[in-house]
Design a protein that fits this description.
The protein is an alpha+beta fold. 29% of the residues lie in helices and 11% in strands. The protein has a two-stranded antiparallel sheet. It is elongated and about 50 Å long. The termini are far apart.
Length: 122
């Protein structure tokens, strides 16, 4: 089923996000391997264009470098891992011309999510 979008102008959505610094990451390759193995292969890839299926199939090779503390130091994190594809999703209620009836959804890179998961455990 497709949604029919109304004709006419729409308001510009403004998303303001501030990044957080990850200072210390302590992990091991087996933890990263488990996280990569549990990836849903049917999900979309992030701005880095690394598909979850590729990451899952190469987990034996990638788990060791992704587990290294140096990988997640601020100066070593690739710029693409800090990016997100953001889109507005209609909440299925109210006027489609009112921006408050939309919610932002961001699609981030999987290695960046791994970094975030590791920092939450600290």
């Amino acid at each position: 089923m497709f949604l029919i979008e109304p004709d006419g102008p729409t308001q510009q959505l403004d998303f303001n996000f501030q990044g957080t610094n990850v200072t210390t990451i302590v992990t091991d390759s087996s933890t990263v391997k488990k996280q990569l193995d549990s990836l849903n292969e049917n999900k979309s890839m992030g701005p880095d264009e690394l598909h979850p299926k590729l990451l899952k199939e190469t987990l034996d090779i990638l788990s060791e470098p992704l587990a290294e503390k140096k990988t997640f130091e601020r100066d070593n994190i690739p710029d693409k891992w800090r990016e997100a594809n953001i889109t507005a999703i209609f909440k299925n209620k109210g006027d489609r011309y009112d921006t408050t009836n939309y919610r932002p959804v961001s699609l981030t890179c999987i290695p960046g999510k791994l970094c975030e998961k590791q920092s939450e455990k600290l």
